[in-house]
Every structure is written in C-alpha cells, then in structure tokens.
Design a protein that fits this description.
single chain, about 100 residues, alpha+beta, five-stranded mixed β-sheet
C-alpha cells in the first residue's frame, strides 16, 4: 500500500475468531482458532479484485501484534501466515 493510502480499519471480531477489513467493497479476512493462549491462524483471504496491495500482510501484522499484546503464542497453519513469519523473523518469539 502506498504511503498516501488511508489506513485500513481492521476489526477484530473475537466472538467469530476473525480479523476483517473491507476494501473497495470486498471483505478481506484472517481467521484463527484460539485454544487457551494459542492462536492458530487458519486462513488469510483477500479477494483478487483488491489483491496485490499488501492487505494480507497488514491483516497478519495486526493479528500478530494483537496476539502479542494478549500474551498469546501463534501457530501459522495457513500457507500465507507461514511465509509471513519467514519474512518477519522479529516475531519468531511468538511461535508456539
């Protein structure tokens, strides 16, 4: 996302275990399962019309930072989250 883009209004729906943001009318999401203090990221989805803008990266970073603030560990079960952790080793201490 460019520097002049408006910040995304990411919403954490803890009841449904999902982080969501609507971009240009398309719902983008990161779904997880929480068991105790371990958050398993199960799915990261960005519809193709809004793909390639770094939305999945921002959703994942937001979710990881939310988990860290709550003292949770993380299991990156979806393929995107696995790659995200490889690209962001500074968050490796959060891996379960």
């Amino acid at each position: 996302m460019s520097d002049n883009a408006k910040p995304l209004d990411i919403v954490h729906d803890s009841k449904n275990e999902v982080f969501q943001v609507v971009v240009d009318g398309h719902t983008c999401e990161l779904a997880y399962q929480l068991r105790g203090n371990v958050m398993t990221i199960t799915h990261t989805g960005v519809p193709s019309p809004v793909g390639g803008r770094g939305i999945a990266n921002l959703l994942t970073r937001f979710a990881v930072q939310a988990a860290e603030a709550r003292g949770w560990k993380i299991v990156p079960a979806c393929s995107y989250a696995k790659v995200w952790f490889e690209r962001n080793p500074e968050y490796g201490h959060l891996l379960a």
